[in-house]
Amino acid sequence: MRSKTLMLFAAQTLVAALMIALELSGSTAYGACTGTSVSMFGAKGDGTSDDTAAIQNAIKAAAASGGGAVVFNVARYFTTGAFVVPTGVVLCGAIEGPFDVGFGTNPGVTVVAPTLLVTNTNSPFITLHGPGAGVTDLLFYYPNQALSTASAPDVYPYTILVSSPGTKVARSLVINAYNFLDIESGRVIAQDLFIGAFNVGVNIDHAYDHVTLRNLLNQVFWDFVNVQNPAYPQAIDTWVLNHGTALVVNRVDSLEVHDFTLFSRFAGMLLTDSPDSTQNPRCGYGTVSDMNLDHVQFGIIANASNTQGFEFSNAAIGSFMSAGQAAVQMKAGGSLPPEVLINGGFESGPWALGAFPTPGAGNLTVVDVVGYNAP
Amino acid sequence: MTRWSLFLFLSFDLILLGGCGGGNGGGVTPPPAVATHFSVSAPASFPAGTLFSFKVTALDVSNNTVTGYSGTVHFTSTDAHAQLPLNSTLQSGSAVFPAALNTAAGQTINATDTAQASITGSSNSINVTPLVDAFPVEAFGAKGDGQTDDTMAIQSTINAAAAAGGGSVVLKVARYFTTGTFSVPAGVVMCGAVEGPFDVPGVNPGKTAIAPTLLVTNTQSPFITLNGLGAKVTDVLFHYPNQVKTSASVPVAYPYTIVANYPGTKVARSTATNAYNFLDIESIHGDGRVTVEDLFIGAFNVGINIDHMYDYTTLHDVRNGVFWDELEGASYPTPIDTWVLNNGTALVLNRVDGLEIHDFYVFSRFAGMLLTDSPDTSQNPPCAAGLGSDIDIENVQYGIIAIAARLYAFTSLTVGAAPGLGQAAAQLRSGASNGCAPQLSINGGAARGSWAFGAFPTPQAGNLYLANIQ
Prior knowledge:
Chain A has about 375 residues and is mostly beta strands. Chain A is built from four helices and 21 strands. Chain A has helices at about 1-25, 50-65, 220-225, 235-245; strands at about 35, 45-50, 70, 75-80, 85, 90-95, 115, 125-130, 135, 140, 160, 165-185, 190-205, 210-220, 245-250, 255-270, 285-300, 310-320, 325-330, 340-350, 365-370.
């Protein structure tokens, strides 16, 4: 009798302990990411001390323990070097992104997000070099870049170079980059990015597998940073209108793009051969939906595609007022003739060459696109 | 030697008093030991707010485990905000328990026998390390018991995160009762500790903790205002415990649950039940660029309203349902659903310069979308433009009412009529301000059910472009 009572008592204890465990077990994770804090390795985040070595040590420590997150506080980490992120290591901000700068908020001066200040001019700032390497929830800012009153930007290498499959760049903001993201591998995801890059937003090549881009916004963040109430266009916007391209697509074997938006570039997308002529083919194919290219000279310039071609649905393409050349222009000169289908959406001119001029090569099919002139 | 003898004697005596009945016949039973203290072993270091386990062992004076210890252990900590187990017993002299400490410092956990306070013990020092920019509301005194007013504690947590330059204000899986409202400043993210969104089938989140839950009772102003660059709300369940039941004919009007006033703000992976109006995106400070994703919205009147948005806004994976029925376990349609069918609108679009909307689902509303001029006519234009795909609007009187719109292009749009109530899948009306006569393109999709005016009646104004509609 007594032993039975004891057993029951023990069982109740066990149940009680389990209930506590269940109640508490929902609370084990916090915030956007947790892991190796760069501050544990001496990073100051004060906007002036060079945190390059501390960040490199944090990356090494995370890699040595088999991978993990390297966490940046809401602070400004000034750097002079570059970083290689190995297998299983993710650089992430402590709070969820993407971030923004509003009118007249300079992230080089004011802390608004987990921020990396980039000054290295010699190599890509971050190289994702191993499966599972990633970058999330960060703000990249180039404090030494030309002001929006300059006539041309300073040239920097890509902010992020992706050289391995299974990598990801997500929920981040870049301001004053020259080129932002170079994807040189298949099976890469880029999502929820606000991109302020003067020359090239995203470049894709050597992707012998699928690449996904979604919810990408290419904007003129440099105006917001430098000017309290930015009167668009600033001087540097003119350079971007004559040079900037939001997305350059070389060799990719199935690209998926949706929710791709830009404001004010020379071209929205350039579909063309890889400069690396050892590839066969040198060009790509894919599908795009819900694409809004606003204020461009050219929406899409296509001079090469793999035989599957590129299919766009629900595409909006708007000209840069009097400077608009064509919504879609098919050019000769590629290794394979470009195949492009535009199915649904609208274009708003005027276009000097016409919205959809006769292809110089390949085939352009336009279906159910509404011609729309803004009031 | 003397003490040892005495100890043996006492322990034997105690066991006899305890009446360990049943005897085991001829066996020789060694004299059982008596517990004099506890050992409490815990990790040397652990992050704040994160569950760990510690072990309590009842020991005799020689530090041998007392397997027969049958007392009850009470837990305390040097951390005033610790989460500790309830009074518990041990099994065969020891047990492992979960706990979480919330205040970053060297802390200990103490165990004491409830009947005999001299049987006690303290853990090694536990170095409670701060999580990177994470601010648990418990560390500022929030109870999360569903009754205590946690408004001040949560506001203090927000203030602390803001003072640190930004960070996450973390809500556990608990019910935080509130009477006030919150302003979330730049760089502060109010987030749940587990990933949302959440759901309420047959579960009342006002009574049962199933998610990081904010119980909203304030009727005066918007519950949360995202009031700085990058301010966000993620992974939270919002519930209005004082809202009417589904048997009522009219809901109680509340202000919006969330107002987003700045660029770079975001509302993600969250659920609202019994709201009146849920989300008002008004990027009045700066250009816009607001992200809305992965939401389950149970709002009677307006799910999402967008205005003063001079840039792009992304809205995707948003479901507007009748969660009030679900949480009461009631069968659709309940009386309150009739009010919603005559009044509720999932999405109201005023001035937006570039909306991207996809994976948008609506069940049982008066209208899925209302495209119309902003009430603020000082804007030029006061209407909107955008793109959308994979939109499913079910059981409505109107799928889309367009009074004013620069141009919207939708693809893969499905609209289904509420039985006996369907008016039109898409109706273009007159009455827009200058330059805002509605332009609407629908390419691909279907209009199902019976529509009093026809699925796509002749536009009163503007242009309706239809292609590939079933």
